[in-house]
Amino acid sequence: MMLRRPKPTDSESDLLREQEQFLSSGTQSAVNIVRRPDKRRGDIASDDSEKSLGNQRDVVTIPDFPDQLPTLTPAPPKKSRFKKERVCFEDEDPEELLDRHDTHISAVLSRIIERDTSAVPVSFPAFTGTAFPKVLHRSTIQTQVMAPRGKKSIFASQIAAQNAKVRGAESQKDPLVSTPQASGSSHIVLGRCLSTVDGPLLLSGEGLGPDKAEQTLKIHQENQTRLQGMSHSEILEEQKLLLAQLDPRLVDFVRSRKSQKALSPVSPPPQREVCPDQPESKTVQPQCAKPQLDSEVVLMMGDEEDETKPAVHPAITSEPCLLPVKPQKEWLHMDKLEPEKLEWMKDLPAPRRQGTKKAMQARFDFSGTLIPPAEDLPVHLGLHHHGDEPELAGYSLQEIFLLSRSKLTQQRSLALNTLAHILSKAHAGEYSTCLSGSVLASLLDAGLLFLLRFSLDDSVESVMSAAVRALRALLVSHEDEECLDATFHWLLGTAVFPLIPPVHEEEDEEDEEGLAKSKKEMTKEREERKLDHDVARQDIVKALLKMQLLQRLRYILEVVRPVPRTVLDVLEILIRIARHSTFAATQILDCPRLMETVIYEFLPCTWTPTSSPYPPSLYGLPVSTVMKLLRVLSSTGRHVCARILNSLGGRRCLSRFLAMEPSVLLLEPGEAICCSTEALRLWAVSASYGQASKLYIDLYPVLVKTLQAAQKPCGPSEPLQLLELQRITALLSLLTQVTHTAGCHEELQSGTENLPPPPVTWGHVTGLQPTVTGLLKGCMRALDDPGQRSSALTLLPCYLVCMGAYYSQLSVQVSLDERVCSYYCRSSSIICQPVLRAPSPVAVPSLPSLGCCRAQSARGLVASESPLPLFTALFYLLDNLTSIHRGLAKNVGLNRNSLLVRFILFLITAVTTPAVPSNPSSAVPLHFMVSPWCEYLVHKLLRALPSVFLREGATGGPEAATLAELQLQEKFTPLTGLGALLRDALSHLPSIRGCYLTHLAHMEQAVLSSADRHLGRNPWLTSQLLPELTGPSMPSDWPFLPLVSLYEQAGVRQGGGLQVVALPAGALQSVVYCLQWLLLLESWREQALKTVPAGAKLARLACIFLCSSDLFLEQPVQELTWALLRGLTQSGRLEAIDLGTPPPGLASFHDLYVALLAQYEAVSFGDALFGCFLLLPLQRCFSATMRLALFGEHVGILRSLCVSLEQLPVPLESFTNPPEDSLPLLGLYFRSLVTGALRSDRCPVLYSVAIAHLNAFVFSQDAVSQEVEATRRSLLRKTYYLTDEVHPCRLLLLYVL
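== RNA polymerase II associated protein 1 ==
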């Protein structure tokens, strides 16, 4: 019967049924199970017993399968080198040998035989008076004999030492025991006493077979018998013979073993037994006394080591006076002295002197204070450590980093807290005068960012809190936050620049317009693949976002729930990240449960009041910093603001904290006012986008009540005065933004735009105007009260800005009211007293900041006494008033255009330059760097361009310029007088304005965006973050813009020809307008282009000759260019020309000059103006490369460069002094004279220059080098051998100019 194999699908019943079928069939199984005895357990039996016990062990056997595997390849049998050396006996059973060498535990346990103790006497312990045996103490055993050598515990060594001491005492009672003799006869004593020794000292019996003990004893007895039969001389002779035959190393080894056993401190002193051949004596010789240590030497014995080691560590001695402590023998693990490890316990050396010139490593204490190198601080402060310079107090940055990686929690926390203090002081600029280099840059290069990020993942809360604190000190600048809060109520104070570092993009040969979408995706992927280290070098905040900092901060707030200080640090870090960019703010909002946790835990609508002003936990209490975080996030974009108001419950929070006075919020008074202030600022930012307008209608009574309460005088002695002033300024900022939003209601309601109109209308804000006007009157009256002057100066700009916003929106409404109060123009001299100072930034490129420094007494333009907010607010109001009421300017003695120019120039200069001039109208500093949000102001300034020079045109400015030019008539008579050129330029100012507006047409979109911000068109604003400050919107040399644009269109940048023959339409007129504008600025506004180097001006004017082949020949261009060139080469301005520095946009001036040479050689027609531009860089003060280029590569120009000495705008001495020292150039001068290329009738200027330099070189009497002397003799020799045709040239060389 064929049985079926089981299948995986069979059930348990199927398997049981198949088993019954198999057993009933009686079929033999395919395998047999055999149990064999285990020899290791001693189960040795006969074959019958094995068969009977065959089922005790399962052995699987397969039929027709060999027991051993066949060899795959024939190989020689393995030979063992050690097997041959083994001694084997023929009658030895291999199985017995295997059992004998079996070390398994079963073999050991099977041979256990109980020892017979019947004949052993039983000894009872001695009776004592104590209940328990006496405990052994190490300190009580002072003179005990150490136990035998070996690795034993301390307790076992003490017991062995006691036993050895007892045995030593018993051996002293034996009369046969005595001390050894002198060392000189030790070998004799040893030879005679060997007979009494029970066994050999060196023989171990290894390799003698199973009866090695008997063989060893037999050999030992034979040696003893032979030694006893030898005399003393024979023993010495055999000893010498034996030493000569043995290996010296073996002899040294035997002697070392003998010396170890004889002098070992852990064994009892060696004793000798009296030999029988000596005379019997009952006297015992005195024992050899133990050698005493010298009083000045500390001797410590070595640790017990294994006997298998052949060498012994010698005892180390050291002078006790050089060691801080004297080790004692009973000290644990101090039996071997290591002086190098005790060096740190010595007294510290004296600090280095102050007069050293060697650079010292900066060291800090735990508060981050820099410690002077020579300051000797006490050791108990904990500032001395075991580093390379233990005498210096404090920790270096490297040691602090090492301490931060310690295994001890306290050390890690201490290091991180110290780093936090150092970073705070570095931001404050306290190390700028003490250290060379930047502390922040050094720490970041050392990996501080990654250290802090790793420390945030620590499981210990104290370390985590210290890491948060250090990260806050790195990212957050408290002074910057104070400055931003202080400027929030200024004109356009809600707009801030993003704190993002400039991005240095990689150069790409392809145009940006032609960049494909796939290329952009590849760029994005490349950014994602960047390592954290590379990202951190460019942008720290971006690197932290990539390292998932937000998720970790959320875990700390949600799970760890740290102390209040750590919570505030986390919130400040989030605020700094939000100020980075809109992308970073979006990352904060998108982080799971981060903002929900922050608002739920720290901005609740209901809370339990606390009795303590400093609660132990901030959870469940409102925190003003959270409201500030929401405000900063909202300023990054209108969509982010909408998410905060709608999704995160921002409207509910605003209603909760603004519907009630701060005094009834059941919070600490200062915190309650801060929460109300930040809520008003958040609402102001929301209103700047046209959002949360419905809330204004609901809370209108509360706002009016708060505004009316601002009339209450506030003295400087009242507490919380500053916080109350900040709350009032935040309220006025809110009203200003609501006014702008209400002013756009009619325009949006007309349907011209696709935006919904805001709920608030113009009628909702008109009722505020009388109240604000009354407050403004009271504030100006308070200026005369010294006690209220400070608070009045703080509130006055806010009132003026609020009134200016009202009148700016009033002009676009249907009804127009021209009521104006004359008190708007009132001012006070107190405002102009403070001196404005520029801030000194302390930052690294990857972590930008505003540069506000606590070390300065006043923070520049944002100081509390700064007149900037009042000036800007006053000019803003007057500008809006004069735009509404045209007759107001005459009534108050102001000119509309002049006032506008003053305001715009003051505002632009204030936000772009360190200081503000005392009289902006007279200076008209057009050298400002236009910021990315000032495009509308620049456009407005250019529109008012004709009024800039009204004063000069009305007071005879052109005539004065003509009279001043009379002193130059002897030298050069221009084609047209300077006065006529200026008068003609003044008449064309409107056309000049149109020319520049045309060339700035590419900034139209930026101008429109800037106009929405300046005009208060809130519904059109997308973000309060200004564009990234990567550079100025306009270059500093913008007056040359028409020339540069024409050069880029028609000229070849590298020179050497033209791309087009004809100029574009209107190009000539644009060049004329540009030159006229430059002439006006250079004549009447000398400081206007002060930031443009003189070399750059010369390079820009040279574009006239490279733009076309005949543009420079036009009469208006000739006249204006001559006038500008004469102005650049005046005695006071000529020295300022530096051609060694490359002009902006050019690699070097030499390349431009080579292009001018090629252009002159092609199309100049010997023009004197063009020639003067070529001669100007050939002066002796400039590089010789341009002179070499002219006389070497373009020597043909010398035939047409016919500029006379009278037409030369610079003195001839600037070409001849000092004498030329370039030998190649002198050789070119000589060649051009000899060949006739340089003649006096064709190129008189360079001819005179070449003659002067050659005469000075040839006939010089100064000591020169051998090479110069050889060149001089060569020129003389060549001059002498000239032919008759060039003989006059030789005579001219002898003429000394």
